[in-house]
Amino acid sequence: AFKAAVLIQQWYRRHVARLEMRRRCTWRIFQSIEYACEQDQIKLHNFFSYLMDQFTPSSSKERDFISHLFISGESYKEAELEKYCDYESIEVPDSYTGPRLSFPLLPDHATALLEAYQQKQQLHARYVLNLLHETRKHLKQLPNISHVSTCYSEEVTVCGDLHGQLDDLFLIFYKNGLPSPSKSYVFNGDFVDRGKQSLEILVILFTFLLIYPKEVHLNRGNHEDHMVNLRYGFTKEVMQKYKVHGKKILRMFQNVFCWLPLATLIDQKVLIIHGGISDTTDLDMLEKIQRDKFISVLRLKKGKESSRKPEIQAINGESESGTDAAGNEAAPRISLQPQAAQAPSTANRPEFSRWLRQTVREQIDTCRRLVDVSESEPEELTYSSTVSLKDVDEPCWTRQEEWKQILDILWSDPMPQEGCRENKVRGGGCYFGPDVTVKFLEKYSLQFLIRSHECKQEGYEFCHNRKVLTIFSASNYYEIGSNRGAYVKLGPDLIPHFVQYQANKTAHMLTMTQRQGFPVALISRVEESAFRALREKLFAHTSALISAFKAYDGDNTGKITLSNWATAVESVLRLGLPWRMLRPQLVRSTKDGMLEYKSWLDDLAVERRSQEHIQSSLLEVIYRNRSNLETIFRIIDRDHSGLISFEEFQQTWKLFSSHMNIELTDDGIDDLVRSIDFNKDGNIDFNEFLEAFRLVKQCP
Questions:
Q1: Tens digits of per-residue pLDDT, 669-700?
Q2: What 3-state class would DSSP assign to 429?
Q3: Neighbour count for residue 431 (Cβ, 10 Å)
Q4: I need a surface site. Which of 30, 280, 284, 528 has the fewest CB within 10 A?
Q5: Where is this region: Disordered (predicted)?
Q6: Measuring CA to CA, which residue among 627, 633, 630, 665 is closest to residue 69?
């Protein structure tokens, strides 16, 4: 009996260990893919920023187009914004049965709003704009760092990222109670994106903010940024739900976001910030920053010309004095190749597509190489917290330092190692170690930090000797069952008390018998989702993987060792995953320890083609670039109508052609845009945009 008990115990421990290993591997896959997507967003934005910085408009129309391309909302002054978003001119029809708001708001308004959203009703655009108008007025009166005291309420509840998951917010209110004079809340940013009900979450939070301004506090997160919203869903959500007045609502949201406070301080002892800190974080400076200047943290206007100009001029054969070798005055814009390429006629579509494909490939690669150099050069303000402040003149120095302060608190993550270094995994912010935390807490006499920004499997996690607490409130973030959500309650003693939950109706309906086997089934489901996403990532890089595999296949046998397979895959995807451990789930069959990599890649292609009836090589490119293409489409679509007008396309093409040195007349651009407009409705939708991209790739 004793031996049997020992065997059962050993079996159970091995079983639990395997489950934990599978759980951790699955988590690594989800996080690596998420952060890689953020890197793609930063690279794309830096590339467009570089093009814009070097573009010289030839007319007021082009200048207006450029000014609105990335800095939407900045050019609107107070009176202009109120006139543009005039909610009083919008009539509410008698047939409207949803909730109605009147100001000042009362608790009954919040209750009616919650009930309406539970019944899938929508708040009328007039009330949304009115609410945003009042919220903006209130936020403008708040300091950069909100101060909360537990003396005036029994406890303070701190919630982390919600990311558009309304069910989690409802569950928090159900468990913890609605905001009230005795129930204070701090919501720590990232209310929007990824989920499908970001707008509803903001409306609810703004409503409670106006009803209980002393009890409800909102911090800005890195997703309260209109450039991030273009990629991760909030922009699209607003325009789909409010097709008529969506543009006005979106503009108001953008302006409200930049007025959100940057941090909250509880009893002068607990600091709540969205991301983290760096070794240069200065609370005194954060309190004095004019926070509304930073509509988007992804881009900062430079105070002087980039130090890379001489280098670029040298590439183009230009001298630093602005003259060419012959002594002629150089053009004010940059030319990326010494001689202009003459475009063939658009009437000959195969020839034009072949020329376009080759030209774009060569010149875009040149632009990207120039952009990548920026990490080591202080004057070029790319998305990095390693901006050097030593070689900048005084007027620009303060602005850069302010930008870096906000960048770090919104995007940084803690790490177990000592020191502070660039956060290359996300592409921005920094990693800060325990020593940085200790120095920061001692400097400002703080007990600990509360931050969000990272999904945690249990909904919360301590690090740095329990001096840094991460709280994440969006359950089932990656997949149903992938993680719990949590919030933390702090009383006068400032001892954290956690409440965990999972907003999953399927899990709640299970019987006790079903629950006994639920963890295994749940892990399998989440694991399957993670590996499906990873296979898509592998398929999207088929061409690069083949090249990497061939480097280890000197004899051209079509086979490589599993060790070389793992090394090659990591060299291409750079996800930092334990590929040898993941191999059994990704590589089903091997012979004598060797992998036939071509047949393995063919299997990935067959799996994708079963879902999309497209040629494999084309599908690979679309899988790899779809997110970037959709973001580019939304950037060009200035009015967020879901359609690119001919004028928007023409101005964007001029932006590209000015740097590719492509001589294409206005008539040629007209011919090009009309050839993309397949249904001849005078606009280009995303499917036409994507189809045109495929046609260019398809031409030999």
A1: 677 667 666 667 677 776 666 655 554 444 44
A2: coil
A3: 22
A4: 284
A5: 308-330
A6: 633
**Catalytic sites, residue numbers:** 223
Token couple for 340: 């202009």
User: Residue holding tokens 């850069």?
Assistant: 400
Query: Looking at this protein, which amino acid is placed at residue 411?
Result: W
> Between β-strands 496-501 and 485-490, what pairing exists: parallel, antiparallel or unpaired?
antiparallel
* Angle formed by the axes of helices 616-636 and 2-54, nearest 10°: 60
Rounded Cα–Cα distance for residues 424 and 406 (Å): 18
Question: 435-456 as b/e, with b when 16 or more CB fall inside 10 Å?
Answer: ebbeebbeeeebebbbbbbbbb
Q: How far is CA 440 from CA 82, 261, 269, 460, 496, in A?
A: 41, 20, 12, 22, 20
What is the side-by-side strand order in the sheet with 156-159?
Answer: 216-218, 184-187, 156-159, 485-490, 496-501
* 342 sits in which H/E element: strand 341-342
Is the Cβ–Cβ distance between 223 and 163 less than 8 Å? yes
Q: What is the pLDDT of residues 69-96, one digit of tens each?
A: 555 444 456 667 777 778 889 999 999 9
The pLDDT, as a whole number, for residue 91 is 93
What separation, in Å, do the N-terminal and C-terminal C-alpha atoms of the chain show?
74
Could you tell me which residues come within 8 angstroms of residue 342 by beta carbon, excluding any fewer than 6 positions away? 663
Q: How high is the pLDDT of residue 401?
A: 86
User: CA–CA distance from 509 to each of 166, 169, 186, 504, 523 (Å)?
Assistant: 20, 20, 31, 9, 18
CA 199 – CA 193 distance, rounded (Å)? 9
How far apart CA 489 and CA 454 sit, in angstroms, is: 19
Q: d(Cα 252, Cα 242) in Å, to the nearest integer?
A: 13
CB 183 within 8 A of CB 192: no
C-alpha to C-alpha distance for 309 and 122, rounded to whole angstroms: 51
What three-state secondary structure class fits 455?
Answer: coil
Q: Which residues of the chain have pLDDT under 70?
A: 36-79, 153, 299-398, 505-525, 589-590, 605-632, 634-635, 637-642, 650-666, 668-669, 672-673, 675-679, 681, 686-700
Percent of the chain exceeding pLDDT 70 equals: 64
Tokens of 267: 């009893």
| pLDDT of res. 298 | 74
Paired sense of beta strands 430-432 and 420-422, if any: antiparallel
Neighbour-count burial of 355, counting CB atoms closer than 10 A to its CB (0-12 exposed, 13-18 middle, 19+ buried): middle
Q: Give the separation between CA 265 and CA 271, rounded to whole angstroms.
A: 5
**Angstrom distance (rounded) from CA 75 to CA 48:** 19
The pLDDT value recorded for residue 562 is: 86
- How many residues are given for the chain? 700
Cβ contact 496:469 at 8 Å: yes
CB atoms closer than 10 angstroms to residue 517: 10
> Among residues 543, 542, 686, 536, which one has the least CA distance to residue 611?
536
Residues pairing with 157 in the sheet: 185, 489
Strand partners, 498: 488
What six digits make up the tokens of 328? 């002629």
Alpha-carbon gap, residue 614 to 159, rounded angstroms: 44
